[in-house]
Amino acid sequence: MTPPAPAVGIPFFEPSGHPDAVLAAGAEPVPLRLPKARPAGGVALAREWVADAAEISCADTDLQALLLAPADPEEIFGMLLAAARLGLPTVCAAPPGAPLSATLTALGFVPLSGDAADAVAGISRGGGPRPGELLDNFSLANALRAGVAAGGGPGLLVHLSALAREAGVAGFSQMARVLAPETPSTDPGWVAEHGVPTLLTSLGDALHDVPTVSGRLKEGLPPAAPVPGGKHRFAFVRARASGAEAVCRAPDGVSEVAGGCRVFVGEGAAVRAVRGGGVGADDLLVVLGCGPRGGPGLLGLDDLGAALGEAGLGTPVVTDGLAPEGVAGVWASLFSPEAAAGGVIGRLRDGDRLRLDLDGGSIRTDVGADEFRSREPLEIPLCAGGGYAARYVRQALPALEGAGFG
């Protein structure tokens, strides 16, 4: 008697041709219906919502594997969190955008040879590898280096931290503090010309040869790569007295940035100031209330990035929210502790002078220590009630710990 075809769950069924490809590969495509509505908030809240909804949907269906092809990082990492919880063998079709594609390939979820549908049909029959067999310190280090090299922003660090936590891999945040600053981001034109496999080859001995859904990682890579040119770099900066920390992303060659603070609670107020001509070249924008608790869910400041670009301003930004992907200038984001958790960023005021030393890894202000300690932090309104977002706010971890449920 012929055994039944293995069932492969595919979320976001309608927009893709993956169901037909899975059927042709000898497996049975099963649609996973996830709620279209999401609670209002940021990228981490959306990721956790997708993870919980996907876990429930998968648990209600007898699946042997998953094929993932979502369009944005919140969806793909939410689905990977669910896959890790359930131990379901998982393949990712190569997503759009080099940073996400490089990250998932280095993790081992994107096949370097063959079709994603063939790969998922194969692992659904063979029972693996499962996410727990792919996710470890080595693959996560690969993913971090690859994503940063491909031009990924600080959101990548947040989502990988959450995935590491879900997989039980300790020490990822400390790993990120070491590996991200020593990995320059590559010029997007170089990545577009040479592709993700060549980018991975360019990492050389820093890339670990880990198992993937289609064999060993280095087996599918070209033997040599031209030397890529750097464009941006990461730096972690810390306030020595309080231990507060932020992640800076800056163009190569920038070692320090300083300015007089313009403090805003919420992105909207900052955007209005920029578009109204109220921000000068010597200012430094401080945007509060956008972190995991304050956002809620870690808000991306895309509108502020767009407004600064439209105004032709390279004004640096410090925020407890998330810097936009591909933004120009210097952004210090994921400031932790965030303002909504009583962090010292909430004690900054208009006119304070703030200096970020990227090479020295420090944040300094010209305000005296006694005066600074005596200030009351600005009040950040929190999401109230008993819904999903309010429950998240009560339990949210800091951004550099993944900004998931604690």
TrEMBL record:
GO cellular component: cytosol
Keyword Iron in record: yes
Keyword Iron-sulfur belongs to the record: yes
InterPro entries membership: Dihydro-acid_dehy_C, ILV_EDD_C, IlvD/EDD_N
GO molecular function: 2 iron, 2 sulfur cluster binding; hydro-lyase activity
Record Pfam families: ILV_EDD_C
Gene Ontology biological-process annotations: branched-chain amino acid biosynthetic process
Domain Dihydroxy-acid/6-phosphogluconate dehydratase C-terminal, residue spans: 255-403
Keyword line: 2Fe-2S, Amino-acid biosynthesis, Branched-chain amino acid biosynthesis, Iron, Iron-sulfur, Metal-binding
Protein name: Dihydroxy-acid/6-phosphogluconate dehydratase C-terminal domain-containing protein
Source organism per UniProt: Rubrobacter tropicus
